[in-house]
Amino acid sequence: MTTTPQAVRRQSPPTAPAFPRSGPAAPMLPSPEPVRLLDEAGNRLPSDYPEPPAETLRELYRRMVVGRRFDLQSTALTKQGRLAVYPSARGQEACQIAGVMAVRPTDWVFPTYRESMALVARGIDPVEALTLLRGDWHCGYDPAARRTAPQCTPLATQTVHAAGLAYGEAYQGRDTVALVFIGDGATSEGDFHEGVNFAAVFRAPVVFFIQNNRYAISVPLSRQTAAPSLAYKGIGYGVASEQVDGNDPVAVLAVLTRAVEQARAGNGPFLVEAHTYRVEPHTNADDASRYRSMDEVEAWLGRDPIARLEAYLRGAGRLDDDAVEAVRTEAEAYADDLRARMSAEPVVDPLSLFDHVYATPTPQLLEQREQVRAELAAEGGEA
Amino acid sequence: MATVTMAKALNAALRDALATDERVVVFGEDVGRLGGVFRITDGLQTEFGEQRCFDTPLAEAGIVGFAVGMAMSGLRPVVEMQFDAFAYPAFEQITSHVAKLRNRTRGGLSAPIVIRVPYAGGIGGVEHHCDSSEAYYVHTPGLKVVTPATVEDAYALLRAAIADPDPVVFLEPKKLYFASAEAALPVTAPGFGRAVVRRPGRDATLVTYGASVPVALEAAEAGRDEGWDLEVVDLRTLVPFDDETVTASVRRTGRCVVVQEASGFAGVGAEIAARVQERCFHSLHAPVLRVAGLDIPYPPPKLEHVHLPGVDRILDAVARLQWDDQPDPKWVAA
Q: Which InterPro entries match (chain A) (predicted)?
C-alpha cells in the first residue's frame, strides 16, 4: 500500500519544524572584516555599532590599566616562586575587561585559566583569583556568590556548562546571560561544538567569546582551522556571529554589548571572535622563541589596546594627565597590596582535603582522614 | 502487591521524582516522545511536558555538560546515556567536572546529577552495547556508583540517587530490565552504602552486585546439592562501599568468592578481594577468589555465554576454597 503525502503529514509530530527552519543565513554571518571603532592610533572610525558611553569607556580604561598591572605583578610573583605557574593575558586587556564589563553582576561568566585579569576586573579579590595558581586550592573564590564558574583548565568543557546554566536560568524564569571565554585552540575540541549546538537548539542565552590570540601554546591558528575566521563556526549551528578587532577596546565592548543584548532578548546564543595576540609565552614555563619571532611580537606590541584607548579618550577630551596619573597610582597601589598579601604563606589544613569530596564523607574517607591526622600528630610530636 | 518489571519500577521512580520535586528534569537521547530505547522514560513527556522530559542533540558530552550547567542553576538533572559504551564521549565531563565540582569549589557548587547508564550484557547485543563500565566510575573520587539487582531496589535506589546531594552514576543491568517481581511501589529500602544479605549461608560468602546477583543466588541454590550452604551479599552501591556487611559475612563464613560480570583485571572484584583479605585475614580458610568476565573485549552475541560468569564457573570457584585444607591445585601447578 502506498502512503499518501497527506497521511505522512498527519503522522508528523506537530512540533516538527518546517524546512528551511528560518530565514536567510546572511544575518548570521560575521562582518567580512573585524569590527573596528578605533584605528591603531586611536582615531575614531565609522561603524554601525553604537559607541559605549564616555563614562563607560573611562571605566574600561581604568580597569585595563589596573588589569595589566595585576598581570605584570602576577608574572613577577611567579618568578619569585610565589605562584606555581601564571598564564599571562598581557596584550589581551581589551578582551579581558570588556568581556566582564559587557555583562551584569547577576549574569554568569565562565573563564579559562587565562582569565585571571578578567576575574579581578569582575571584582574578585586578587588573592582569591590567584589561589589556583598559588596552589592553595583549586578555586579560591565563591563561584555562586560571584556568579563566576571556576577557571576551566580542560579545554572547551565550560562551553557546555554555560549552555546548561543559561538554559536552566531561563527555564526558571530568570533573564541571566552566560558569557563564556574560550581560546582559538579550544574551538577544535568537540565540547566547543556541542556547547554551541546545545545553546542553539535550546535557544540558551549564551555569548561564546573566542579570544583568538593566535597560538595554542606553540601551535598556530593555521593548525586549528581552515575557516576564513573562527566566527564562521557559528553559522553551521544557526548561531549569529561577529568578529572584532580584539585590540580595539571600544569595538570589543560595543560588539559584546550587542551580543549580550541579543542573547538576553531571547534571540538565542551569539558567537564573537576577537582577533588579538598573546604577547607573553603560554605560561612562564614556556619558551616562545622556539616557535615565533620577536618581530612578530614587536608588531603586536605596537597595537597596544591601552595606548589606543588612552589616545582616543585624550583626543576626545575625556582623559587628561591628572586622570591618567590617578589611574596609574591606583594600579601601583593595587600591585603593592597584592605583593604584600601574596608574601604571606597561607596555612592550608591537610585535613580539609577530605571535606568536600562528598556532601558527607564516606566511611572509607573518614578512615583515611584519621590516618592522615595520626601521621600529622606523629610529625608534630617529633618536632 | 503487583508484578512489576525493573523497567517499570525505574519508570515509576522517575515519575514520582518528577511529581514531588519540580527541580527534577529528565533528558537524553530518545527519552521524550519515544520513551527511551528501553522505555524507561515511557509516558513521562506526556505526563510532565516537554520542559521536564526532553530529547537533546545526539552528543553525550553535551548532555552531561549541559546537566552540570543546569545543576549550577539549581536544577536536578537526571540524564540517560543510551548504552554503556555510548557514555564514553561524556567521560571527561564526568571525571573532570561532575565528580570534582564540589571539591574544586570547596562546596561552593555541587553537581547533584544522576547519570543513568544501561549496562552489562546477557541480552545478545552487538558490540559496543554490553560493556560493564563500573570500574571506570568507581575509580573516580566524587562519584557515587549504584547498581540495583532487584525490582524494589531499582525503585528505591533511583529515588535515593535523585534526592542525593552528590552525583550518582546509576548503572542499570539491561539483562534485568524485564525481570519481574512482586512489589508494592513506592517502596523504601536501605540507603546508599548499605549492602544486603540476599541469602544467608554458613559455608562461604558470594559477594556480588547488579546483573550477577541472580546468577549468584542460582549458584547458591545449586551449591546445596554439593553440600555447601552459601551466603550471597548484594552490594547495591559500589560507592559508598559497605565494608561492614561484607566483612561481617566473610568473618562468619571464612570463605569468599567475588562475582562480577566485568573483566576481572583491576576490576571492582579485585578491590573487594583486597579489602576482604585486609580485614578478614585471620578468619579466612582460603584465598579470596574472583569469578569475572574474561579479559577480552566484549564478545559477539553467540559467544557471550563463554564470557559471562555462570553457575558452573561460580561453583568451580567455590570448590577451590580449600575445603580439605589443601593448597589450591591451580596455583600449585603453576
A: Alpha-ketoacid_DH_E1_comp, DH_E1, PdhA/BkdA, THDP-binding
B61 vs A138, A190, A352: nearest CB: A190
| Cell, residue A271 | 558567537
Q: Do B107 and A356 touch (CB under 8 A)?
A: yes
Predicted TM-score (pTM) of this structure? 0.95
Residue A129's H or E segment, with its range, is: helix A126-129
Chain A residue numbers touching B164 (CB-CB < 8 A): 359
In angstroms, the CA B114 to CA B107 distance is: 18
- Coil vs helix vs strand at B273: helix
Q: What is the identity of the amino acid at A203?
A: R
How far is the C-alpha of A19 from the C-alpha of A17, rounded, in Å? 6
Between 1.10.1200.10, 3.40.50.300, 3.40.50.920, 3.40.50.1950, what CATH number should domain B196-327 receive? Answer: 3.40.50.920
The number of domains in chain A is 2
Q: What is the pLDDT of residues A155-191, one digit of tens each?
A: 999 999 999 999 999 999 999 999 999 999 999 999 9
Q: Are B2-183 and B196-327 the same fold in CATH? A: yes
Same domain as A357, residue A303: no
Q: A357 and A258: one domain? A: no
A285 and A368 part of one domain: no
Contact check, Cβ <8 Å, B69/A163: yes
Domain of A372 in residue numbering reads as 350-382
Strand (E) or helix (H) holding B221: helix B212-223
| Residues ≥6 apart with Cβ < 8 Å to B48 | B18, B19
Write out pLDDT tens, residues A109-129: 999 999 999 999 999 999 999
**pLDDT of residue B328 exceeding 90:** no
Complex confidence, ipTM: 0.95
Min mean pLDDT across A39-43, A343-347, B227-231 is at A343-347
